[in-house]
């Protein structure tokens, strides 16, 4: 724990506000519920502490809880690491290969992306995770992945305790008839009797905790396998998406080129060692990365620039014809629009009649795009983008003639 305290440094009490979010509240609630009920079940009803097996079982449960919370809080408070404000490459000529972030007033280092929630450019950003209310990136990706591994393992152990608790407590109290099953919820037949009888409330709480444990095992376990799949290829979730869009771009324009991901070392063990180290600190500084032979240092950022240019070409200009308040499920835009609101953390944006928007992708009743800002917009606001209903806008005549479709729609035709 001393190492954890030396790594986690609260710059101010503002960091504690990370707990004030539905993600950490639910995550910590599930951990507390499963851990508490598993320990109570072991001590009171299933495996007494005065036995060797009971003591070992209880210590193992404690270790699961400590390790899960350690990695959870490490991922939350150590953070992903941010690109220094005002950062620029050592060689000024390399800036032509990089994107510039107007919010951070700095160039985006290779593998970094700007997070709207954190309002900073994140080094080797994988995603913004609501469960830790922070980004997952260069510094905390290993802790986050270990949390995804330990949580299902701890839940499997807890689920075993819950099943055995209910089995041992109800075994002598089940009466099977021809048409009914009767359960006598009187005190357990155990010598000595437990301090707290396994009554109806204890049974309901144990059954509820079992459901949480099994659900967490499935959901978090799937996330772990997804993360390990991209980690062993030395990628992030965003980079996997960029690679897929690179293939789509090349196929769309039938180009004679091949995109090779530059950070895959060709060995899963080498890729694994870049993130997981004995010291707990990942290799590198989060700004410069080793690349595979034959690749350019800025291969990925060059591809990103190509994709952004392609997005601008394939975007469609719309004019706002009706005001939209930016609500998630607008009642005044029609029943179909209300029930098909995009299920994503990307925001909805407020629209005013007469504004113009460049739409880049869309659903049947919703579009996603960027507002075309004018000089009256406050300084420091680089982009305003998000979802909005289709029936609030109309395609500009100049774009209607070309009959282009937002990215994502053309592929579905």
TrEMBL record:
The keyword Acyltransferase applies. GO terms for cellular component: membrane. It is an enzyme of class 2 (transferase). InterPro entries: Palmitoyltrfase_DHHC, PFA4/ZDH16/20/ERF2-like, SH3-like_dom_sf, SH3_domain. The chain crosses the membrane at residues 25-47, 146-167, 195-226. It catalyses: L-cysteinyl-[protein] + hexadecanoyl-CoA = S-hexadecanoyl-L-cysteinyl-[protein] + CoA. GO terms for molecular function: protein-cysteine S-palmitoyltransferase activity. It is a multi-pass membrane protein. SUPFAM superfamilies: SH3-domain (SSF50044). Its EC number is 2.3.1.225. The DHHC domain is required for palmitoyltransferase activity. This is Palmitoyltransferase.
């Amino acid at each position: 724990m001393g190492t954890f305290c030396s790594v986690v440094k609260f710059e101010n009490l503002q960091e504690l506000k990370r707990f004030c979010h539905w993600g950490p509240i639910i995550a910590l609630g599930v951990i507390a519920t499963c851990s508490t009920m598993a320990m109570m079940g072991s001590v009171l009803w299933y495996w007494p502490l005065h036995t060797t097996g009971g003591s070992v079982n209880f210590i193992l449960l404690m270790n699961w809880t400590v390790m899960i919370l350690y990695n959870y809080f490490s991922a939350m408070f150590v953070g992903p690491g941010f690109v220094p404000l005002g950062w620029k490459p050592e060689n000024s000529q390399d800036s032509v290969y990089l994107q510039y972030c107007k919010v951070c007033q700095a160039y985006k280092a290779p593998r970094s992306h700007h997070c709207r929630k954190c309002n900073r450019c994140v080094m080797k950003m994988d995603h913004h995770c609501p469960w830790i209310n922070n980004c997952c990136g260069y510094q905390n990706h290993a802790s986050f992945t270990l949390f995804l591994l330990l949580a299902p393992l701890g839940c499997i152990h807890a689920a075993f305790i819950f099943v055995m608790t209910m089995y041992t407590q109800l075994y002598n109290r089940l009466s099977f008839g021809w048409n009914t099953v009767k359960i006598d919820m009187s005190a357990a037949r155990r010598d000595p009797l437990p301090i707290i009888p396994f009554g109806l409330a204890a049974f309901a709480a144990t059954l509820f905790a079992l459901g949480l444990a099994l659900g967490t095992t499935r959901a978090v376990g799937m996330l772990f396998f997804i993360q390990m799949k991209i980690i062993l290829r030395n990628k992030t979730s965003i980079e996997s998406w960029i690679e897929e869009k690179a293939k789509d771009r090349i196929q769309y324009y039938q180009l004679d080129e091949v995109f090779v991901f530059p950070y895959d070392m060709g060995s899963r063990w080498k890729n694994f060692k870049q993130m997981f180290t004995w010291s707990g600190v990942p290799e590198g500084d989060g700004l410069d990365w080793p690349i595979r032979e034959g690749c350019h240092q800025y291969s990925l950022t060059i591809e990103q620039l190509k994709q952004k240019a392609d997005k601008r070409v394939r975007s469609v200009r719309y004019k706002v014809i009706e005001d939209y308040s930016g609500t998630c499920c607008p009642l005044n835009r029609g029943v179909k629009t209300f029930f098909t609101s995009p299920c994503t953390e990307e925001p909805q944006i407020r629209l005013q009649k007469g504004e113009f928007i460049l739409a880049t992708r869309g659903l049947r009743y919703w579009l996603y795009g960027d507002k075309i800002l004018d000089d009256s917009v406050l300084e420091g606001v680089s982009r305003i983008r998000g979802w909005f209903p289709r029936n609030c806008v109309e395609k500009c005549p100049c774009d209607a003639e070309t009959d282009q479709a937002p990215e994502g729609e053309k592929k579905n035709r």
